[in-house]
Amino acid sequence: MNDLIVKLISRLLIPFIQLYGIYIILHGHLSFGGGFSGGALVGSSLMLYAIIFGLKESEKKLPHSVSQFIESFGVLAYIIIGFIGMILVGSFLSNKSAGFSLGEFGTLFSAGMIPLLTLAIGIKVASTMITLLQRLLKEDSHD
Amino acid sequence: MKQFPVLIVLLPLFSALIIPLLPKKKRFLFGFVSVMFGLLFILSILSYLNVINDGSFRYVFGNYLAMVGIEFLIDPLIALLVLFVSGLSFLIIIYSFSDIQHELKEHQYAYYYCLIMLLMFSMLGMLYTNDIFNTYVFMEILSIVSTAIISIKHKRSNFLASFRYLMLSSIGSLTILMGLAFLYMVTGQLNMDSMSLVISNVWTLYPTNLVLAIGFILIGLAIKSAMFPLHIWLPDAHSSAPSPSSAFLSSLVVKIYIVVLIKVIYRIFGIEIIASLRIDDFILIMASLGMIFGSIFAIGQKDIKRLLAYSSVAQIGYIFLGIGLLTPLGLAAGLFHIFSHALMKSALFLSAGSIIFSTNKRKLIDLDGIGFKMPITMITFSIAALGMIGIPGISGFMSKIYLGLALIADKHPIFLSLILLSSFLNAIYYMPILISSFLKEDVLVKNTLQKDPLPLTMIIPMVIITLSVLLIGLYPQIIMDVIELALPYYF
Amino acid sequence: MIEALLKHTNYLGAIALFIIGLYTVLTHNNVLKKVIGINIMETSVFLFFVSIGMIQFGRAPIIKLNETDIIYVNPLPSALILTGIVVAVSITAYSISLIIQLYREFGTLDLDKMLENKEEQE
To answer: What confidence tens digit (pLDDT) does each residue in A131-142 have?
Structure first.
């Protein structure tokens, strides 16, 4: 797409969308939303960039090999966090009993490992969204 | 060790995540996959021994209450099924190393094994979990992955088959979700045990909700497990997939949905409620129709894999017939047929796959004299096919015996005649293949006994599966004992 | 009867959407419309599931420590449906990528025409 207004506006918008997405991911244990919703927001900002500036520009910013790596990393992080609880107290995904600090109720640093899990999910969802779009665009540009 | 179930479920997921990151070397990939499957098999043997020695147990995630968190229930039957699934899939995987080099392109191998690993993850999760919504999530993963391993072969018939499968199975899963909503309205629980407790107390108050719930869930699972009138996706999907995938889909994936149906009928609702809502009549009628019509459709097929796929529809009818009787004997017969059909059908699909692998022929008329060119393959095929017909000494015979005994004990002798009729129909479409492959002569080549033109990695799994078919046919107690041990958990 | 139905318009809406979606999937030949039908069915199930957990005048279940006796709605159905939405997204993405492949193979979106020339023409 070669439209100046769209490019300018999106350049203005994308940082704010990403900031909002990150906010939602980080506050997943305190309010609505969480990993999926926030990750979808971040992912949609990346998708917006890919649609407006084209596949090539978007692959320059986030190559497919990197996004694939991040995608696997998101779930691996989830599994590893779960394993911590399993090794320490013998139950997968244990939270309080595995020694994660629950913190003060209602603050950002609370709820033990749940923010970490939300973060892992957010990374996974965002990278999946952009990988899906890149795949579809690439398939389209083959012929 | 109480951690076995989690390790068994997480190992395939972990390897599915690692596989795309591995270097793109064929040898390395195959080695990694076989090591992971071997590890899975060893873990499931240990877990099985553990359950047999120490009795069944529950595993609660994250030390929450079982009512709040997700719970795994491991009884002897589930442990045996997990052992069976991991062992059979290990054999199919070894077979697939040679076969997919013929059917897929080199850059697709990593994706294929990634999908197979996800398939294992969702199947094992579905077997273990005791939480109904967790089952739904695993089911969705399974349905997407099983359509994806059909469409990985870039041919137009594959895309078409997998699209139709995807549409029907999404209708099925949405129907199941709707049923779960009705169930949740009544119970307010998601754990199967607390659900059944609530249902047995209040079911006279909300009969409409429960009828709707079991109706929706039954129809959804019937689509996914190809109960007779809803089987239309199965022949295309199972026949166009790569041969190892066909073996996976036909012998394992469909069975997992049936196990979920068993859990819903026997564990959540309980047989009294099912019987008084007259759900069992519906299952029995559909099962017997499937037994007859699946065989009749199979008679008209010209493609060997399509024939096997239609035969699956008939054999699934047997399993549903056992389940629909709502007696311990019937359930045991149905469960036994799950094992014996999985073994026989995977032997059939693998040997059909090796015929296609070495001769590139899949039409039935081209099979004249194939028994002399590929003796081991055709002996495998014949033993499994004779088992499907019900020749004594092969596991199919024993499951028919158990089913017949259960039917007589439950005073349903009419279905016994249907089983006999279905066996005759099986003979009508399996015998011509055997006759033409061993007694007829190819037009071009004379019948001289040759060695199979196959790599060892394809022959050994077929032979092991055939031997276990014979073993279970001669000593059915190996499986029956465990089933009898597990029956109290379902009544 | 009618009064009971009017009280539970959510049931009516969910069932109507479910049937519209099912009808679209089963009768339309256009593969894209089939996917849209699946999406309508999904919406109906999500609507129904979420509306079960609804309590009149209930508040969103974010606990405030110093306020007591507030009625909260049941958060579990919403949480479950979030999972359902994730699944719906992946089914839609996968089926759309399949449709791209189908269109490239057959040059049409009509399922009947695809079934007519199912065999490989090479």
So the answer is: 888 888 876 654
pLDDT tens by residue, B166-212: 999 999 999 999 999 999 988 888 888 888 889 888 888 888 888 88
> Across the interface, do A91 and B63 touch by the CB < 8 Å criterion?
yes
The rounded distance, in Å, linking the Cα atoms of B86 and B358 is: 27
Find, in chain B, the residue whose alpha carbon is nearest to that of A66: B21
Q: Best interface-test mutation with A: which of B9, B61, B154 has the largest number of A CBs within 10 A?
A: B61
Q: Is the dihedral of CA B203, B208, B209, B210 positive or negative?
A: positive
| Number of domains into which chain B is organized | 1
Indicate the residue of B140, B160, B171 with minimum beta-carbon distance to C102: B160
Q: What's the pLDDT tens digit per position in B467-486? A: 999 999 999 998 898 888 88
At residue B99, does pLDDT exceed 70?
yes
Asked if the structure places residue B270 within a domain, the reply is no
Residues of B with CB under 8 A from a CB of C: 133, 137, 140, 144, 147-148, 151, 154-157, 159-160, 162-163, 166-167, 170-171, 173-174, 177-178, 180-181, 184-185, 190
The three-state (H, E, C) secondary structure of B187-239, written as one string: HCCCEHHHHHHHHHHHCCCCHHHHHHHHHHHHHHHHHHCCCHHHCCCHHHHHH
Q: Is residue B144 part of a domain?
A: no
Q: Is B188 left (phi over 0), alpha (psi -120 to 50) or beta?
A: left
Q: Which helix (H) or strand (E) holds B60?
A: strand B57-60
Would an 8 Å CB–CB cutoff place C60 in contact with chain A? Answer: yes
Task: Check residue B340 and give its pLDDT.
Answer: 92
Residue B374, in any domain of the structure: yes
Local confidence band at A143 (pLDDT 50, 70, 90 cut-offs):
very low
Strand (E) or helix (H) holding B72: strand B71-74
Give C-chain residues touching B181 at CB under 8 angstroms.
45, 48-49, 52, 77
Cross-chain residue pair B155–C98, CB shorter than 8 Å: no
Question: By C-alpha distance, which of A53, B163, A67, B113 is closest to C97?
Answer: B163
Q: Which domain holds residue B309?
A: 289-491
The ipTM is 0.93
| pLDDT value of residue A115 | 85
**B271 three-class SS:** helix
Q: Which residues of A touch B8 (CB under 8 A)?
A: none
Domain C2-116 has CATH 1.10.287.3510: yes
Q: What is the pLDDT of residues B128-171, one digit of tens each?
A: 999 899 999 999 999 999 999 998 888 888 888 999 999 999 99
The answer to the question of residue B44 being in a domain is no
B344-B322-B248 Cα angle (round to 5)? 35
Closest-CA residue of chain C to A34: C82
Q: Determine whether the interchain pair C45/B157 forms a contact, defined as Cβ–Cβ distance below 8 Å.
A: no
- What integer best gives the mean pLDDT of chain B? 88
Q: Does the pLDDT value for residue C120 go beyond 70?
A: no
Which pLDDT value is given to residue C33? 92
User: Length of chain B in residues, anyone?
Assistant: 491
Q: Is C93 on the interface with A (CB under 8 A)?
A: yes
Q: Which residue has the higher pLDDT, A36 or B62?
A: A36
**Between helices C9-27 and C31-52, what is the axis angle to 10°?**
160
Residues of B in contact with C48 (CB under 8 A): 178, 181
Residues B281 and B299: their CA atoms lie apart, in Å, by 28
Average pLDDT, chain A: 84
* Residues in chain C within 8 Å Cβ distance of A135: 97
Please answer yes or no on whether B62 and A92 come within 8 Å at the CB atom. Answer: yes
B358-403: per-residue pLDDT in tens?
Answer: 888 888 888 888 888 888 888 999 999 999 888 888 888 999 999 9
Put simply, the answer to whether C98 touches B177 (Cβ < 8 Å) is: no
Q: Which residues does chain A have within 8 Å of residue C60's beta carbon, measured at their own beta carbons?
A: 32
Q: What is the pLDDT of residue A94?
A: 77
